[in-house]
Amino acid sequence: MKILVAAPLHPKAIELLKSEGFEVIYEEYPDEERLIELAKNVDAIIVRSKPKVTRKVIEAAEKLKVIGRAGVGLDNIDLEAAKEKGIEVVNSPAASSRSVAELTWALILAVARKVAFADRKMREGVWAKKQCMGIELEGKTIGIIGFGRIGYNVAKIAKGFGMRILLYDVIKNYEKAEEVGGKFVELEELLRESDVITIHVPLLDSTYHLINEEKLKLMKKNAILINPARGPIVDTEALVKALKEGWIYGAGLDVFEEEPLPKDHPLTKLDNVVLTPHIGASTWEAQERAGVQVVEKVIEILKQ
Ligand code: NAD
Questions:
Q1: What ligand 1 atom has the least distance to the C-alpha of 171?
Q2: Of 12, 82, 202, 216, which is the most buried if we count CB atoms within 10 A?
Q3: What is the pTM of this model?
Q4: What's the pLDDT tens digit per position in 135-164?
Q5: CA 298 to centroid of ligand 1, rounded, Å
């Protein structure tokens, strides 16, 4: 059987396919026309967040049984078209949870201790010791919005920091909450009481601009807001206002309403925000797991 790998995949995942006797065709990010051509004779297609597996591709792929996405989001796959043709779609949603949680902590610490700001100043030849007074985390409260895979990993680390943990989620996993010493509260209470607020919900109608001007105004003046989930969960315009006018202490953002973040965006002008280019899952370990886990699922389906 033939498998088209249409995006960079960890070598271990490719090895696994080959060792199971599959023929691997590799082409990085083909455009739609090329993908239609390549997909014609394959049993499976494996992608990442690119390329787009459109209806046209799916309809042209006569032998296709499964589409694998190494990673989480399925927005680049026409799920409706796949369903109509009985093609299974599999992904590896848990592969990057720990890595995203660790980046969350990198952002929390970078904001609390002004690491990025201090580094910028050092490179300008400025010894900015006085401007770099920060915040200690032990004994403070962290509010975790979305206590799923990533939220849970963030909480495990928070426990090690000796922080009080507040949780907000529409589904309450009390067993996991107890394990990390966290307490479920309403969103308003979490926003009012937390020194660090970190977002780990998916982007849905119910979470679009969940953090808006009104919610930012509920936060403490010394609060740190972290968004490593999806850009549109935070109203950027309101956040820029909050950061400029000092309603909160600072923010750490890995995701944006517009990606890539436009050059000269107002956020890039502020010293109390740390920005990273959507790198939550960008670790060797997460990429290896994402590749291997999705390949295992694809193999299982093809061997049925
Ligand atoms: P998950 O599904 O395991 O957890 C999400 C949690 O949010 C669930 O417990 C769910 O009940 C809760 N939730 C859903 N809607 C809610 C609402 N309206 N109010 C309160 N809680 C709600 O997801 P996860 O794997 O932990 O991922 C969380 C987020 O991280 C997602 O937005 C995902 O897109 C993002 N993510 C970012 C990166 C990155 O590179 N920065 C990488 C992977 C995932």
A1: 11
A2: 216
A3: 0.94
A4: 999 999 999 999 999 999 999 999 999 999
A5: 24
